[in-house]
Amino acid sequence: MLKATGIRKSYGNLEILKGVDFEVQKGEIVSIIGPSGAGKSTLLHILGTLDKPDSGTVALKGTVINKLNGNVLSAFRNQNVGFVFQFHHLLPEFSAIENICIPAFIAKTGKKQAETRALELLDLFGLKDRAQHKPNQLSGGEQQRIAIARALINSPSIILADEPSGNLDSENAAALHKLFVSLRDNFHQTFVIVTHNEHLAKTGDRVVTMKDGLII
Ligand code: ADP
Ligand code: ADP
Predict the structure, then answer these.
(1) Start and end of every ABC transporter domain (predicted)?
(2) Chain-wide mean pLDDT for the chain?
(3) Atom 25 of ligand 2, residue of closest alpha carbon
(4) Beta bridge partners of 208
């Protein structure tokens, strides 16, 4: 599904990624752990085309994505990559269902079709009765599930999650990782998850450890 080869990235004189090779199969959950500053977020941003490597290639479903630019890149990212962050970044003025639909509207999906899909996801996540709630009317765990529904609405090839449970208590964090596993089991959804929590990392299929800009 995703293959990165020889990824290098420097900020000024500081080399953050020193030649990273990384591969994910369809339907696989790969967790990335390692100390703060190891380069995990930088790698995730490059895998998701939010940032470009200085050298090396990233291929998603066979398309070398670090060669894409501008609107082509934005459209490719919006349709193929779903992002989940530590903080949900939901828009406060929009309802849950409106937030979920945003990437579909960017992809020019019709309103009816987008809302139908959003309601399916809300139902799947046990949140159908929360569709019209604003983010501040939802619990932390609910907000994060809405953010995951938003990441899923365009049926992306891969979900990239940076500390998705970092702001949740242990019960909600465990529930979130269980949700990832059920999305893998039921829909062959592919995930790369950066986490500090080694226990939760092990709920996936494979754990990769980064240190000083390399996978060790
Ligand atoms: P991790 O996610 O493993 O904690 P990061 O990828 O966030 O590591 O950061 C790795 C290093 O890169 C850190 O030393 C950080 O300060 C530095 N860094 C990250 N992004 C930038 C940037 N845009 N400009 C300069 N330095 C950065
Ligand atoms: P995390 O460790 O959870 O991945 P961040 O990715 O937010 O946290 O940042 C990691 C480190 O990189 C922090 O020390 C932060 O100050 C630094 N950093 C992030 N973005 C930049 C940037 N644009 N310029 C300089 N330093 C950055």
Answers:
(1) 2-216
(2) 94
(3) 11
(4) 32
Segments in 29-139 forming alpha helices (H): 40-47, 70-80, 96-106, 111-124
CATH code for the domain in which residue 141 is found: 3.40.50.300
Give 49-92 pLDDT, tens digit per residue. Answer: 999 999 999 999 999 998 898 999 999 999 999 999 988 899 99
Domain boundaries, position 24:
2-215
pLDDT of 26 higher than 90: yes
- Cβ(38)–Cβ(211) below 8 Å: yes
Quick one: which of 102, 64, 108 has its CA closest to 83? 102
Distance from the alpha carbon of residue 32 to the mean position of ligand 1, in angstroms: 15
90, 166, 85, 180: which is closest to 135 by C-alpha?
Answer: 90
Judge if pTM exceeds 0.90: no
Among all bound ligands, the one having the nearest atom to the CA of 9 is: 1
Please state the domain count of the chain: 1
Q: Cα(110)–Cα(34) distance, rounded to whole angstroms?
A: 42
Helix, strand, coil fractions of the chain, as percent rounded to 5: 40, 25, 35
**Tell me, what's the ipTM?**
0.66
Cα 46 to its chain centre, rounded Å, is 12
